[in-house]
Amino acid sequence: MHNARTNASMTSLFFANVLYWVCAGVYSPFLSAHYTSLGLSAAQTGILLAATPVCALAIQPLWSTIADKLGRRRAVIVILCLAAAVLAPLYYLASTFVPVLLVTFAFSAFFSGLLPLSDSLVIELADRSGLDFSRIRMGGTIGYAIVVLIVGRLLDMAPQIQFAVVSAALVVFAAHMWRLPEAGIRANAADDPKVSHGKGLLSLFTSNEIAFVLVFAFISSAAIGFIGAFLGRYAVELGEGQNLVGVLSAVSAASEIPILLVSSKLVRRFGEMNLLIFSCFMAALRLVLVGTGIVRSRAQTWCKSVLRSVAASPDVTPS
């Protein structure tokens, strides 16, 4: 009986993670190509893509505070999903920079709160059931890799469906999250004398290690975020379409799977800090290779061969 409940919990939490990353996979990787198709400049595209993290920085603490005070993270997640699902089709009404920017802010105000809240809920429920979150997180990677392949192909044929699919995925995600148990407020954190109060963001910098991780996250995200943000525009400039974006995003996501499978062993052997430093150097190498054009011609040839192998038509890319 205990094993059956554990397996049921694992399946439910696994698909919760899958469904969030399905929503993200339908929306995020293909945005820059969509903006390019509207005739927006690279500078305008950069501003629009920056609007989401800026909005997240301002809004996420609000949603987290509301969820913690109410002790109803699940309910807040469902509300955010449904609100974002209603707002996503507004992208169809926006074709110039300012309207697209307003729609992006409105959508991101709700969508950006989903990842931290759903992760915190799933992590706590996994801990309660004695489950390994890295295995659950793998579901998100698999779901993301599959959906970007499918959606990339579909958007090449019917680009107008993107935001309708985003809305549908968010509704499905909301329905699944509503079925999860409520975790409540974590361990009465508000009553814990070890928790600092009234210090705001300064309370995060309680050790050199935390400060290092935060600075590392900022620097690495600035670099990695640039690649993800302009991948779609770069594909369009190469004469490719959304299918290429889907393939590259799928390959990138799939590369996480071996790491997730052995992450616990790697951490035990090398330590978190050493792994973070190594990953930072590898990300820098990737930027140098792509940014200097060293791998450009080979990358195009490889991408075309991958596209031919996964597409229904043998002539899906131009010569």
Topology readout:
Elements: H1 2-27, H2 31-37, H3 42-70, H4 73-87, H5 97-111, H6 114-129, H7 133-157, H8 162-179, H9 208-237, H10 242-254, H11 256-270, H12 272-291, H13 296-310
Helix pairs in contact: 1-6, 1-7, 1-8, 2-9, 3-4, 3-5, 4-5, 4-6, 4-8, 7-10, 7-11, 9-10, 9-12, 10-13, 11-12
Oligomer: single chain
Question: Would you count the extended β strands for me?
Answer: 0
Helix content: over 70%
Unreliable stretches (pLDDT < 50, length at least 5) are: 187-198, 300-319
Q: How much is the radius of gyration in Å?
A: 21 Å
Distance between the termini: 59 Å
Q: Biggest β-sheet, characterized?
A: none
Quote the beta fraction.
Answer: under 5%
The coarse silhouette is globular
Mean pLDDT: 76
SSE series: HHHHHHHHHHHHH
* DSSP summary: helix tally: 13
How would you portray this structure in words?
With 319 residues, the chain is mostly helical. Helices cover 76% and strands 0% of the residues. It contains 13 helices and no strands. It is globular and about 50 Å long.
Notable features of this structure?
0% strand; 13 helices; disordered C terminus; 319 residues; mainly alpha
What's the short story on this structure?
By secondary structure, this protein is mainly α.
